[in-house]
């Protein structure tokens, strides 16, 4: 178990700094010795014994962030908006998965908080029904589930009632039994009630003797001004260190792996610049529409829903310089530098689309505007493609193309890196006139079916000299027997551990909004019409014209073996 709490002579290793150490030791150990998955325990065992040999020093314990006695502290996790979609779909299942894996601290309590009237038993029933997490087919799942549910409670209250939060505080105190109380609030509620809930939680249900942290879900505003206003309001009640702005894409395994890939392999970093990279593509597609979330979506649109946060965060991690260390502030400093080096997106570099109804195989799929919560004349984009540029020495002139859409032909998130053509390639004639077919391309498939593969040119075995394009393929399911945790598991654990690396800092957020705010305003002011595309298609052709303007061909056209 990598990032979980484990006991070493009754001492709990709690902080991520130590977990990070474990990960790095693990990683280097695995690479250096090319171990099979079974042999991977060795470096951890080694680290454990190293830790055992130093834990006699109290000074060292403090530095490493150890709790000398875990019996003296508790963690209470309050899911605010517990009756909602995200809580049921993601938060409770992630908490259970963490419990199952032994990653939650010994003394923890989960509280659901919402206006709906529910008893503890009803909450437990709801949680157990919606528990469709990766754990549910595992050994002893039923037993573990029972144990977990016994630690779940519910309190019904208004989001703007200090009195109701004070009642919650009273209940939390009963569970905490006088120990040091650490409290995590997860705001899983619509954004218009964030501030009310934060105000009440901070004034009436903050911890008196431990930490209090608040996870805030997106959207963090809808442009620079509203985002700044939200930050300002949050900071009336919380310090920046208490605010954990979640972007769940940062918790995805392959997004986290980006830094490992770049900074611990000699072969990638030297190529990671305008000198060798022709373009970078960040692609998100879903094969379903906004079903059930039209009301929210129509106010935001795909650029705010996916590009300004998930894809831009990936871009920043992809393009940043080597951070001074793996500490949260060092990484976030580098990400901010990338964002601040970028040109605000121009209207001519954006294509927008909206899905329309389509019938296939006797089934009729709805148009975006068929959703009852969406105005019939809505121009909100459900698809967008954009070309972005980073004006710094490393990336000058390299187009970073983004494409995001709902109701497309597949569900996928990937990063595609297309390298330059080989100068004076001796084998040019083997590729005919289409040199793009010989482009080396590195694909990091974030989901589904996680993989990293590199398209290379290779001689087809035989007496002739025929070349083809083949993949060097790191297919996760084939290589690693362990399941990949859900992003929310990683992020919840980080928030409990106080690790901020995967959460968005306020200056990052400002920089991100300043790239998109002008174009979003222009799209709305000029009432730019989206290009309509059939539900289940590959999206508007405009995306291809945009790419062609920068001599780019989208890599996800289904031509490569792993696509
Ligand atoms: N659902 C998803 O897949 C994702 C959601 N998010 C974000 O997470 C947060 C929660 O999302 P989700 O669970 O879908 O939201 P819901 O719309 O399901 O709302 C959550 C809960 O908040 C309460 N609530 C809803 N509307 C109002 C209102 N107008 N006034 C007061 N209370 C209200 C309801 O509880 P009650 O009536 O019992 O008080 C509801 O169960 C949002 O900020 C969303 O943007 C982010 C990414 C994905
Ligand atoms: O934040 C969001 O993400 C989901 C996609 O998340 P994934 O982990 O399932 O890829 C998206 O459907 C939603 O519109 C958006 O708000």
From TrEMBL:
Gene responsible for this protein: LOC107933096
EC category name: oxidoreductase
Official protein name in the record: Glucose-6-phosphate 1-dehydrogenase
PANTHER family, per the entry: GLUCOSE-6-PHOSPHATE 1-DEHYDROGENASE 2, CHLOROPLASTIC, GLUCOSE-6-PHOSPHATE 1-DEHYDROGENASE G6PD
Organism of derivation: Gossypium hirsutum
Family designation: Belongs to the glucose-6-phosphate dehydrogenase family.
Pathway: Carbohydrate degradation; pentose phosphate pathway; D-ribulose 5-phosphate from D-glucose 6-phosphate (oxidative stage): step 1/3
General function of this protein: Catalyzes the rate-limiting step of the oxidative pentose-phosphate pathway, which represents a route for the dissimilation of carbohydrates besides glycolysis. The main function of this enzyme is to provide reducing power (NADPH) and pentose phosphates for fatty acid and nucleic acid synthesis which are involved in membrane synthesis and cell division.
HAMAP family referenced in this protein's UniProt entry, alphabetically: G6PD
Residue ranges of every copy of the Glucose-6-phosphate dehydrogenase C-terminal domain listed in the record: 260-554
